[in-house]
Amino acid sequence: TDARVTHSEVTPAGDSDGYQPNVVYRYEVQRVAYTGGGIDWGRFDMPEAEARRRADEYPVGSRVTIHYDPANPDRSVIEPRGGWPYALVLLLGVVFVIVGISLILSRGGS
């Protein structure tokens, strides 16, 4: 769905020394207007220069394609990918499962 960026800035992340790109956009689904504010599904603190680079990718007034949840159209993001942090968590989970199964099997065989 097409959207128009209405706000784009960098803000301090709060409790940490990191920063977040803050991009807000407006879009319509079945003639209902929505306001969204997410580049991707996660919220990860980053250095100020990286947050600035990400925010600058979406200048105010630009058109972007957003992705929304059809069951809940007010949930939306510009980039639906999970990103490397999600992949890392998934990979670590798989490693722990494999190690756990290996430990169980090795103790059962003794």
Structure summarized in a few sentences:
The chain is an alpha+beta fold and 110 residues long.
Describe the structure.
This protein has 110 residues and is an alpha+beta fold. The chain is 31% helix and 35% strand. It contains 2 helices and 6 strands; from the N terminus they run βββαβββα. The relative contact order is 0.20.
Order of helices and strands: EEEHEEEH
Summarize the biggest pleated sheet. 4 strands, antiparallel
Q: Please report which band the strand proportion falls in: under 5%, 5-15%, 15-25%, 25-35%, 35-45% or over 45%.
A: 35-45%
Classify the helix fraction into a percent range. Answer: 25-40%
Q: Globular, elongated, flat, extended or rod-shaped: what is the shape?
A: flat
What's the alpha carbon Rg, rounded to whole Å? 19 Å
Number of helices: 2
- Terminal CA distance: 59 Å
List unreliable stretches of 5+ residues: none
Judged by helices, strands and strand pairing, the structural class is: alpha+beta
Widest sheet, order of strands: 3-2-1-4
The chain-level mean pLDDT equals 86
